[in-house]
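$ ./design --mode recover --in tokens.txt
reading tokens...
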């Protein structure tokens, strides 16, 4: 009996809160009418986006109430209201989520007061179920009806507040627009880096090489010894330019990825990082390292490159900023993607705004529709987990 009363009390609280929210929406309708009239009269157009934001907060409160009761969250799908007034107005009016919230608000005027039906059930339930369950030992029949009313409120709210396919599509388009902008920015930054490396490094060495060869040609007849020395210097310059050119090429697409695959390339990174790095590779991934078992599959080249640069940047950050001596890298094949987890035992406190390369990693991963999660409390450890979707 005690469990039945406790569940009925919890359902009653849910229904009372729903009734309070319904009463608040009835009051809010006055604000909504004023906003619509003012918008049509142009003078109050700026009120409409703010009113829509308030509607979103009210709908969000209902979503949280339903999640508390059912344990299942109702997803949201809203377009961000930002920019100039005209853009904000256009988004507020055209966002499918606005009409979803308005539809729920109108319906909630009627079913939001289901709690009124629960009040008379309490005295009847305490008497009937007290005798029926407490004395006879049978299942309660009246108080559980309050929980069913709360379930009914939750089901109707879920059906009305669940984003429509059109809203999900609009949200997806907005997300892809942002990731495309990030990918374009990352691509532009990469091109500028390559241009800078070529201009300041390789090109400067090639110019110096050309000058030394020219001086050697002029000095060859009158001073062969000086010409030979200039040619030796030119050879050193050529080798240095070739080394820098290889470095630039590795920055575009590391040849080791093609030769040894992602697992082998990551093992090479770990070996040259200067840290004590443990590499764990899922058996479903192809590894072309020496002594590695044959078999496994390779992700697409773009996914391999993104995962490689995430590991490289993470280990570089660990060496430069974390003060760690140990780190670990895990590569795992998922049913529909690839997971990369890099962990270092450093001081933590990694921040995207701190210039540690996390923003670049985020853009590179987002361009492939992947996710990146950073956990780095002060004192460590720092864990960077990336999931990249792909077809095997």
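writing sequence...
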């Amino acid at each position: 009996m005690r469990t039945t009363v406790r569940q009925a009390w919890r359902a009653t609280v849910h229904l009372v809160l729903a009734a309070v929210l319904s009463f608040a929406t009835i009051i809010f309708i006055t604000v909504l009418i004023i906003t619509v009239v003012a918008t049509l009269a142009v003078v109050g157009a700026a009120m409409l986006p703010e009113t829509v934001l308030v509607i979103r907060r009210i709908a969000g409160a209902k979503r949280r109430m339903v999640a508390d009761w059912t344990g299942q969250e109702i997803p949201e799908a809203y377009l961000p209201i930002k920019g100039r007034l005209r853009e904000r107005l256009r988004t507020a009016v055209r966002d499918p989520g606005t009409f979803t919230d308005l539809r729920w608000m109108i319906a909630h005027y009627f079913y939001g007061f289901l709690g009124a039906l629960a009040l008379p059930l309490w005295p009847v339930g305490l008497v009937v179920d007290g005798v029926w369950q407490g004395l006879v030992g049978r299942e309660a029949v009246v108080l559980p009806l309050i929980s069913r009313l709360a379930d009914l409120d939750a089901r109707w709210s879920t059906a009305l507040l669940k984003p429509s396919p059109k809203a999900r599509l609009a949200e997806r388009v907005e997300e892809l627009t942002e990731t495309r902008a990030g990918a374009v920015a990352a691509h532009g930054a990469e091109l500028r880096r390559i241009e800078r490396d070529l201009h300041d490094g390789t090109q400067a060495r090639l110019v110096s090489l050309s000058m030394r060869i020219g001086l050697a040609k002029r000095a060859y007849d009158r001073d062969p010894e000086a010409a030979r020395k200039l040619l030796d210097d030119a050879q050193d310059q050529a080798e240095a330019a070739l080394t820098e050119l290889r470095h630039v090429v590795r920055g575009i697409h590391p040849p080791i990825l093609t030769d040894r695959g992602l697992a082998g390339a990551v093992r090479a990174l770990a070996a040259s990082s200067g840290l004590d790095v443990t590499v764990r590779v899922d058996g479903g991934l192809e590894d072309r390292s020496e002594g590695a078992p044959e078999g496994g599959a390779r992700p697409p080249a773009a996914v391999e490159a993104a995962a490689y640069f995430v590991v490289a940047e993470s280990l570089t950050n660990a060496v430069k900023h974390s003060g760690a001596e140990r780190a670990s890298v895990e590569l795992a094949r998922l049913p529909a993607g690839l997971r990369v987890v890099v962990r270092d035992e450093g001081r933590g406190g990694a921040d995207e705004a701190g210039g540690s390369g996390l923003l670049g990693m985020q853009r590179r991963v987002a361009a492939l529709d992947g996710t990146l999660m950073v956990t780095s409390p002060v004192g460590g450890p720092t864990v960077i987990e990336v999931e990249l979707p792909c077809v095997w």
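exit 0
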